[in-house]
Amino acid sequence: MSVLQENDPYVKDMKQVETAALFRQILRIMEELRQGVKKPYKEVIDVTSGDPQKTGMKPLSFVRQILAACLYPQLINDNKLPVDVRQRAQRLLGECPGGSVGSYSATRGVPDIVQRVSEYISRRDGGAWSNPENIFISPGSQWSLANIFQILVNTEASTRTGILTPVPGYNTSILSIKEQGAVPVPYYLDEEQGWELHMEELHRALASAKGVCNPVALYIVNPGNPSGQVQSRQSIQEVIQFAFEKRLFILADEVYQDTVYGEKSEFVSYKRVLAEMGPPFSDTVELASFHSASKGMLGECGLRCGYVELVNLDPAVMKYIYTQFSKDSCAPVLGQIALDVMANPPQPGDPSYPLYIEETQHIRTTLVHNVNRAFTVFNSLPGLTCQPGEGGAFLFPRLDLPPRAIQKAKEAGLGPDTFYCVNLLEDAGVFARPGAEYGQKEGTHHIRICIMTPPDIMEELLRRVTSFHTQLMKDFS
Ligand SMILES: Cc1ncc(COP(=O)(O)O)c(C=O)c1O
């Protein structure tokens, strides 16, 4: 008998098992392509993750120049690099222990960088105070999120801890919640209303937890992954009011805050709205707000750096969090430097400013182009509908497959969306992820596509999806 059985917690989530099969499939296809096996495509387009550099987006020159000079300080004297890059690198190195990026930093991050992150948050939030003591820089925002989940979950209580989580929502966080032994309590975003969050739904979700678990926190992803919606200030206010009344800790995952492209959308942070609501909310509602160097204009996922800002936590709990966060010595120092650039980009008059603006503008234009093109193409295909994306890195179009296709999926032992992704990958060389991984309303099926790609790749992807989808609808109608 094998050690792991189907009912073991790590195995029983069949959605993950199906996805593992997709990852084996991609490895096989890549190997076949390498060996020259003939296929209708020469390479796979992988839009499975919100990792912009993986899909071909270029890193920002300013970030890379500073990193290069910090790694190899001789470059600080090389006038091939702009003077503001060299000055910044020199200052940053001076702030690192031993003057080197190869040393450990303080647990919460290099103190000067923590300070500048807090100043950045204050600027972003219209002057609302951000206490550097409440900021923890970590090896990615997911790392701090998992650690806060761990602190929130009471493993000794007879009733399990519940965390309200969006559906669809970020699957890694849902796995983290389960890993801690907590129960994700789903609240459904309204697809027909552009994946809006309704207060009645939050009330329903909370009531559904009665007798099942003890809900202590509300997890929000804004802008949404995979749904791409952006919450309005009004909606955030209502959520804060709800958390206040129901005594819930808010976990605001705001890693996509710099990529908001909906014409009428604007990113407003939970921290800002909370501060502006004033007492009793601003001094009681507990909030953890997360941001990252992995997303937005930087897209430096591989450098592994993010931060969490904690608001209104009990000082005794803060001490415990400090200990919890010390278990890994520090976030990678190069990642912290990227985070510093995110918080302090070049300013008008700086030699690097024009190029920085050109590159970030290009990323924005690309995102707007991609999201509009994908929206138009998906909605032009029978059996596919897509809500407009307002922010983030993804679209989450809905599949309405013919009954014969659903039957065929069943025979193959797959959910309809996984069946679709398996065939899309095999026949068209497009690697997307099935909606089941993110949660979806019973009876609905989706796929998730990252839109952070160069426009020519997006065009090729849309061409392949159109041709595959048209054929599939014909074959199964
Ligand atoms: C909503 C959301 N939160 C957190 C993360 C993880 O970010 P990090 O690389 O900072 O751990 C991601 C990554 O895709 C994400 O989509």
Describe this structure in words.
This protein is globular. The protein contains 15 helices and 14 strands. The protein has helices at residues 14-34, 61-71, 83-95, 111-124, 141-152, 171-179, 199-208, 233-246, 270-277, 315-325, 333-343, 353-380, 403-411, 416-428, 455-476, and strands at residues 45-46, 135-138, 161-167, 183-188, 214-221, 249-253, 287-292, 306-311, 384-385, 394-395, 398-399, 430-431, 433-434, 445-450. The model is unreliable at 3-12 (pLDDT under 50). The strands form three sheets. The chain has a seven-stranded mixed β-sheet, sandwiched between helices. Strands 9, 10, 11, 13 and 14 form a five-stranded antiparallel β-sheet that branches. It is an alpha/beta fold and 477 residues long. It has two domains: 14-56 and 357-476, Aspartate Aminotransferase, domain 1; 94-343, Aspartate Aminotransferase, domain 2. Strand 5 (214-221), helix 8 and strand 6 form a beta-alpha-beta unit. Pyridoxal-5'-phosphate is lined by residues 50, 140-142, 170, 221, 225, 253, 255, 292, 294, 301, 306. Pyridoxal-5'-phosphate binds at residues 50, 140-142, 170, 221, 225, 253, 255, 292, 294, 301, 306.
Describe the structure concisely:
This protein is of the alpha/beta class and 477 residues long. The chain is 43% helix and 13% strand. The chain has two domains: 14-56 and 357-476, Aspartate Aminotransferase, domain 1; 94-343, Aspartate Aminotransferase, domain 2.
**CATH structural class of the largest domain:** Alpha Beta
Task: Give the overall shape.
Answer: globular
Second CATH tier, the architecture of the largest domain: 3-Layer(aba) Sandwich
Total beta strands? 14
Largest sheet: 7 strands, mixed
Cα-based radius of gyration, to the nearest Å: 23 Å
- Please report the distance between the alpha carbons of the first and last residues: 44 Å
Report the helical percentage.
Answer: 40-55%
- CATH superfamily membership of the largest domain, which one? Type I PLP-dependent aspartate aminotransferase-like (Major domain)
User: What is the H-and-E element order?
Assistant: HEHHHEHEHEHEHEHEEHHHEEEHHEEEH
Bound molecules: pyridoxal-5'-phosphate
What class, by secondary structure content? alpha/beta
Determine the strand fraction and express it as a percent band.
5-15%
Count of helical segments? Answer: 15
CATH level 3 topology of the largest domain: Aspartate Aminotransferase, domain 2
Strand order of the largest sheet: 2-8-7-6-5-3-4
The total domain count is 2
Mean pLDDT: 94
